Every structure is written in structure tokens, then in C-alpha cells.
């Protein structure tokens, strides 16, 4: 006879599917799609970039087969708890890369669509790469890597000697190991570590292909009818892994920064990284207290009219061509 835990494991997928069908039948469904970049770049270890030709194909398909909601329409159904129309989709972007303005915005305008762009406010106008891109530049695409290296600061530890293995391979392993550590650091500590690494690893020039928007770019971008701006912290830490004062500062200052730049209210927020390990009850409470109408997370699932307002799910989109994007959408809808 199977144990109670075995039986739960067997029943869990069935219960999940039944709940999905019930919620969809009663409250409709909306696929919230998560993009980061629209650009063609030679290296993309985080798989954040969608080529412009592929993004254009995505928008054509969505226009033909789905109902792409404006942010106001999405608000109407989620906040009023009213059933979503069949085939509803909301487009979202995280971070604030310059190519959101130069590549994504024109294609959205071409197709008459709108997206909600969550912006990490500290990077706007900084002339700096986002911290994960800088770590990539330092360790993965750095022609000046030393043959021997040792670094220890806070929880960040890396060292190698090229004897028997190339420095490139050691640096690749260090990159994979340090990503999770650095996302959990308070932003000030992480920036201090990166400053030291720039000098010690001989890579101090930021890549123009990986920059966020400048201030004037951002203001022009935010003036498009295809753009609605939301907040995404100042410096993109994993909020659940820093203390409450740090969480509150990152969240509230992000809102304040963007409102100062734009001269209008910013009503939306998304959690950096956004998995279940990256936000907690404290994060959610601060998001509500800061006055955001709703908050996006980053775990798969459709949104319906009874979804949680301050951690609704999104589907992460990769660099798929049109046919593969269609297959992925069908998978998303089946839950």
C-alpha cells in the first residue's frame, strides 16, 4: 500500500490541473509574458535576449491569435476581480535595457501593442552594465584574464591557477558559482566587490551593447503610448535574501526615483528574479505599503481574476522563432 506522501505525490498534478480548469472556467485567464531584451548579441549566458526578428514574429502571432491587453485593461480585470476575456495576454519587460527603447518600443508601436516595463531605477543614466552582465564581462568575455587569481571579499570567493586547466575554464566555473552568491548581497556590498574585480581582472570599460537607458532616452521611451513604466528596485538584489530595511529602501526608492524622472505616479512593481526564493511575506507587505496596485513575480502560471495581486505569475519568454513561440504558448495555456 502506498504511503500518504506517495499518494499526495500522485494526486498533486491531478489536483493542480483540476484547480487550473476550475479557475479558468470561472475567472478566465491571462498569460502574462516576461521579456528582458530585444537585441541580437553574440553572448547571452542568462538567455535574456530575443532577436528583433523573433520579437516581431511573436507580436504578429499574438495579434492574430490572442487579445493583447493594455495595462489599464489588465488592471480592470485583476483589481475588480472580473473575468478575463478568452485569449488574454499582457506583455511585460524587466530591467530597463537601452534596447527596450531602440528595438522593442518601435516594434510594439508597429503592432499597436502596449507593454509594462519594470525598471531598475538606479541603473538609468548610470552608464553601467547591470551587475550580472558586468560579472559576465569580467569572467566570460575578458581577454585580459590573469593566469593566476585569488579574491576573497564577504561571501564572494574565487581563485584559480592555470596549471592543468585554462584560466578561461576556471573563470567560467567562478561565474556560475558567484551568480547566486552575488544576487543575495546587499547592493552596496555587491557594487564594492565589482569595483575591486574591475581593477584586479583588468576590465573597466562597460559594453555599449549591455547598457541601460540614459536619462533622456528613458524620458522619451516613457512618452510612448506603447510603454507603461513600473518599478523593479534600484539595484536588482534578491529581496528575500536581504534584511527588511534594505528591502524597503530598494523598493521605495525605486518608486521615488522613477516618479522624480517622469513627474507622474508609478503604480506597478515586479520582484527582481521573482522566484519563490526571491521574495517573501515581508517583501509583499512592503510592496503593498508602498502603494503599488499589483506586483509581478516570475514563476509559471496563468493569471485569473482571483490571482494574488502582489505575486501574480508570468511566463518567461526565450529567443524562440515564430513556430516555437506558438508551441510554447500552447504549452503555457495547458498549464
Structure in words:
There is one protein chain. It is globular, with a radius of gyration of 21 Å. The strands form four sheets. Strands 1, 4, 5, 6, 9 and 12 form a six-stranded parallel β-sheet that branches. The chain has a two-stranded parallel ribbon with strand order 2-3. Mean pLDDT is 93; it is low at 10-15. 45% of the residues lie in helices and 15% in strands. It has 335 residues and is an alpha/beta fold.
Give the key terms.
TIM Barrel, 12 strands, alpha/beta, single chain, two-stranded parallel sheet, globular, six-stranded parallel beta sheet, 335 residues, 11 helices
| CATH topology grouping of the largest domain | TIM Barrel
Approximate strand percentage? 5-15%
First and last CA, distance: 30 Å
Q: How would you describe the oligomerization state of the chains in this entry?
A: single chain
What top-tier CATH class of the largest domain fits best?
Alpha Beta
User: Which stretches are poorly predicted, pLDDT < 50 over at least 5 residues?
Assistant: 10-15
CATH architecture of the largest domain: Alpha-Beta Barrel
Give the overall form.
globular
Q: What's the Cα radius of gyration?
A: 21 Å
Total number of strands: 12
Secondary structure class reads alpha/beta
Number of helices: 11
Query: Mean pLDDT, nearest integer?
Result: 93
How many discrete structural domains? 2
Helix-strand topology string: HEEEHEHEHEHEEHHHEHEHEEH
Major sheet attributes: 6 strands, parallel
CATH homologous superfamily placement of the largest domain? Glycoside hydrolase/deacetylase
Helix content bin = 40-55%
Amino acid at each position: 500500500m502506498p504511503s500518504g506522501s506517495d499518494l499526495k505525490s500522485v494526486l498533486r498534478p491531478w489536483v493542480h490541473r483540476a484547480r487550473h480548469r476550475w479557475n479558468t472556467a470561472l475567472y478566465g485567464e491571462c498569460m502574462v509574458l516576461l521579456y528582458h531584451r530585444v537585441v541580437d548579441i553574440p553572448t547571452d549566458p542568462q538567455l535574456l535576449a530575443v532577436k528583433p526578428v523573433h520579437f516581431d514574429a511573436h507580436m504578429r502571432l499574438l495579434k492574430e491569435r490572442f487579445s493583447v491587453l493594455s495595462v489599464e485593461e489588465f488592471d480592470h480585470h485583476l483589481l475588480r476581480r472580473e473575468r478575463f476575456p478568452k485569449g488574454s495576454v499582457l506583455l511585460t519587460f524587466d530591467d530597463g535595457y537601452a534596447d527596450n527603447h531602440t528595438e522593442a518600443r518601435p516594434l510594439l508601436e508597429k503592432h499597436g501593442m502596449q507593454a509594462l516595463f519594470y525598471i531598475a531605477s538606479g541603473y538609468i543614466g548610470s552608464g553601467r552594465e547591470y551587475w550580472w552582465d558586468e560579472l559576465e564581462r569580467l569572467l566570460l568575455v575578458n581577454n585580459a584574464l590573469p593566469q593566476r587569481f585569488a579574491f576573497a571579499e564577504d561571501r564572494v570567493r574565487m581563485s584559480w591557477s592555470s596549471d592543468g586547466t585554462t584560466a578561461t575554464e576556471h573563470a567560467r566555473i567562478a561565474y556560475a558559482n558567484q551568480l547566486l552568491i552575488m544576487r543575495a548581497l546587499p547592493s552596496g556590498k555587491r557594487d564594492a566587490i565589482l569595483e575591486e574585480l574591475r581593477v584586479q581582472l583588468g576590465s573597466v570599460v562597460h559594453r555599449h551593447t549591455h547598457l541601460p537607458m540614459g536619462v533622456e532616452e528613458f524620458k522619451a521611451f516613457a512618452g510612448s503610448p506603447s510603454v507603461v513604466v513600473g518599478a523593479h528596485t534600484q539595484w536588482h538584489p534578491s529581496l528575500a535574501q536581504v534584511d527588511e530595511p534594505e528591502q524597503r529602501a530598494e523598493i521605495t526608492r525605486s518608486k521615488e526615483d522613477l516618479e522624480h524622472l517622469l513627474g507622474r505616479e508609478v503604480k506597478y512593481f515586479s520582484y527582481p528574479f521573482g522566484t519563490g526564493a526571491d521574495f517573501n511575506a515581508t517583501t509583499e507587505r512592503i510592496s503593498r505599503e508602498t502603494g503599488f496596485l499589483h506586483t509581478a513575480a516570475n514563476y509559471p502560471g496563468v493569471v485569473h481574476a482571483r490571482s494574488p495581486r502582489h505575486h501574480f505569475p508570468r511566463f518567461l519568454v526565450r529567443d524562440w522563432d515564430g513556430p516555437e513561440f506558438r508551441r510554447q504558448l500552447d504549452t503555457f495555456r495547458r498549464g
